[in-house]
Amino acid sequence: MSIDTVDIGTIPAAWTRRHLLDLESLSAEEINVILDTAVMLKEATGGCLQKLPLLTGKTVANLFFENSTRTRTSFSLATRRLGGDTVDFSASSSSLSKGETFIDTGRNIEAMGVDVVVVRHQTPGTPQLLAQNLACSVINAGDGPHEHPTQGLLDILSVRQRRGRIEGLTVALVGDIAHSRTARSNIWGLKKLGAHVIVCGPATLVSRRWEELGVEVSYSLDEILPRCDVLNLLRIQFERQTTRPFPSVREYALLYAMNRERLARAKSDLLVLAPGPINRGVEVTPEVADGPHSLILEQVANGLAVRMAVLWLVTGANE
After folding, report:
1. Which pLDDT score is estimated for 2?
2. What is the pLDDT of residue 193?
3. Could you tell me the pTM of the whole model?
4. Which of 169, 166, 119, 172 is nearest to 146 (CA)?
5. Residue of higher predicted confidence among 98 and 301
6. By C-alpha distance, which of 132, 108, 233 is closest to 182?
7. Interatomic CA distance for residues 251 and 242, integer angstroms
8. What do you get for the CA distance between the two ends of the chain, in Å?
9. pLDDT tens digit string along 109-157?
10. Ramachandran region of residue 175, left (φ > 0), alpha (ψ -120 to 50) or beta?
């Protein structure tokens, strides 16, 4: 698709939302609208390298209350690729330290003419709270352990790009399921598109209650590995844990790290994803992370396309 085929300013009729807060509330059709739009914009911009004037005159504010490299940079680049302006907000140097409320901070930033607020916060539900109190669009860039919708979307897009479909695939999310917002967004998105989802990890990080979401629970990577089409290897989030969930990192790697030996026992066309930052030698060994089965760098590239799509869709729905 060339740049000339993009109907600038016209968003798909199936998309009516002015926010992206989660994947749980989205339909399969809405998820596919985002994925298809991401593909269209990626192709129209030569792999997200060229610019399109879809957000000319729009301003996107990045409100990040937690550290981020890929997500913050990706949203900033996505905005600029579509001709918009960005404002970065630093919580440590803001008036929040002087007692200003979170909502007042959001309203003051919106009053400066901001069209979209991209927010990452350690408290679940924070993006929903902003959406209820602001007239501009709000995009969830991760709210505690709740959801990270654009990460889920870029993971799904990376798989669909290689396999051509999601329906019928068996996808295992391996690792720190208990604290992973990425796991939750992947579960909602993958299930709605027809995948069979397995969550796998130590019993201290994977409760049987996950079965209530319609996913399979396993405590053995070696047992499920031969059935898997895709492995998504999640980082152990020590910063969110109050107690050590397993005796040692070495033991965790022995039981759950994807390495050369496990790869030899897997399907020949297995796809390996990792949302990052990856801990080499813990969730995945270097030869797997850098090998032909890995989609890790494709995930990063697709993140830019997904975020371009989301920014265009929500601003169009808010006009």
Report:
1. 42
2. 98
3. 0.92
4. 119
5. 301
6. 233
7. 19
8. 26
9. 999 999 999 999 999 999 999 999 999 999 999 999 999 999 999 999 9
10. left
Q: What is the DSSP string of the chain?
A: --GGG--TT---TT---S-B--STT--HHHHHHHHHHHHHHHHHTTTTTS--GGGTT-EEEEEESS--SHHHHHHHHHHHHTT-EEEEEEGGGSGGGGT--HHHHHHHHHHTT-SEEEEEESSTTHHHHHHHH-SSEEEEEEETTS--HHHHHHHHHHHHHHHS--TT-EEEEES--TT-HHHHHHHHHHHHTT-EEEEES-TTT--GGGGGGT-EEES-HHHHGGG-SEEEEPPP-GGG-SS-SSS-HHHHHHHH-B-HHHHHHS-TT-EEE--SS--BTTTB-HHHHTSTTB-HHHHHHHHHHHHHHHHHHHHHHT-
Phi first, then psi: give them for residue 175, nearest 5 degrees. Answer: 130, -135
Query: What does the pLDDT look like over 27-60, one tens digit per residue?
Result: 999 999 999 999 999 999 999 999 999 999 999 9
CA distance 227 to 265: 10
| pLDDT at site 95 | 57
